[in-house]
Design brief:
With 197 residues, the chain is α/β, with parallel strands linked by helices. The chain contains six helices and seven strands. The radius of gyration is 16 Å and the shape is globular.
Length: 197
């Protein structure tokens, strides 16, 4: 399993640990292959809302002065994506949000009803599993908002499954990644009719 770890800069030193390295170790222990990409918001051009990625250059942002197109392509080519984000007022950190705004080329501009809700159509046949790990939340309310936000964001991409974890210590990072990986393996077996639950 190829796993892309998209992390913000604060994840390098949460509680004295580098969360991305801990996540990478957990993926490797689970038999996967991980790639870490540290996002820096100021190095990602802002989405200008031109919608050219939907109508003129389908799937590719017209802005080429940064790495957003490369990261978006890596996202689609992965089996799973782990977002490591400091919880900021219940939302993503600036670094993560900057990339998410520029990842809209990975979905279509058209809409359809999916799961009883209006959602963007899928551009590709599959989207990777999403594991959202929020850290540094100051209250239960803030953590709840983060979990709800990431769940709703993932619905537009329609991954096979979305997992969200709120962690309070670096030791919980590996546990979160392992729990997500175990759930993904179980789901794959169910989908292949190898097991029934």
């Amino acid at each position: 399993m190829n796993v892309l770890i998209l992390c913000d800069r604060a994840s390098e030193s949460f509680c004295g640990c580098d969360l991305s390295v801990m996540a990478e170790s957990a993926v490797t222990e689970a038999g996967g292959k991980a790639k870490i990409v540290q996002l820096r918001g100021e190095e990602i051009n802002h989405c200008i809302g031109c919608f050219n990625c939907w109508v003129k250059t389908p799937g590719i942002c017209i802005q080429t002065g940064d790495s957003a197109n490369s990261f978006a392509a890596q996202e689609i080519q992965s089996d799973a994506v782990i977002f490591l984000s400091k919880i900021t007022w219940g939302c993503y950190s600036y670094d993560i949000k900057s990339f998410l705004d520029r990842s809209i080329p990975n979905i279509m501009p058209f809409f359809e009803i999916a799961g009883g809700d209006m959602r963007h159509k899928m551009r590709y046949k599959k989207f990777p599993y999403i594991i959202s790990i929020g850290y540094g939340g100051n209250s239960a309310r803030e953590k709840s908002i983060f979990a709800n936000l990431t769940r709703h964001n993932s619905l537009n991409f329609r991954p096979p499954k979305h997992f969200v974890f709120n962690i309070d210590s670096c030791g919980e990072t590996a546990d979160a990644v392992k729990a997500g990986a175990a759930a993904m393996e179980l789901l794959k077996k169910v989908l292949k009719n190898e097991i029934f639950i």
